Every structure is written in C-alpha cells, then in structure tokens.
Amino acid sequence: MVILLFSWLFLSAIGQILIKQGLNQLKQYDLINNLHQVYIIKLIASNIYIFLGMLLLLLSILFFLICLSKIDMSYIFPLGSLTIVLIIILSYFYLGESISLSKGIGILFVLSGCVFLGLKKRKYIN
What pTM was computed for the model? Predict the structure, then answer.
C-alpha cells in the first residue's frame, strides 16, 4: 500500500513539474489573452512536457483511486500534502526556483504533520 501511496504522490508532483516546464517554454505566447484561438490550444497540446505531465497526472489519479479504496480518507488526504513538499523540492532542482525561509518552515510543518499522522493507528479497508 505504501508503494501505491508514494506512486500517487510522485506521479502527481512530477506531472505538475513537467506541465510547468512546458508552459515555461510557451512564455513568448500570450496564452491568457489568446486562449480562444485554436492555434494556442494546439501549441499547448503539441508540447511534449505538457503532454507527458498530463499523462502522469492521469496515471496519478488512478493510483489515488486505488489508495482511496484501501485507506481511510482521513489518513490519505493529509498525506497528499506531501505533494506540496515534493513540488517545492523538484521546482528548486529542475525549474531553478528558490526555496525561501518561509517555504522551508512550511515544509517542516507539513513533514511534522505527516509524522504525527503516521503515529496514529492506520485503518485499511479489506
């Protein structure tokens, strides 16, 4: 079950990073003011990073559904906040974004919350 849970978290985080990387490549286009134009939608759909990111997000939803069918909702949703931590770390390494002091403190709070959550007895649905 742990493998399924972390597969959901990692696929979701990596998918979002890939989508952001693809959108960064399209910065020269005014996407917000031109979304009604078909060529912009084709441009987004033809970007390999966006395509792979969406594919990974779709796959992560499948893992999420499996986890949700086996683990209590009150346990799985708070652990989903680990995706935030993964995205901040991956953004630092792959997108060159900075990790401020407030982000670092936030990461510590999220991790400590997950540790406390892990201390309670988990209920798996049979």
Answer: 0.81
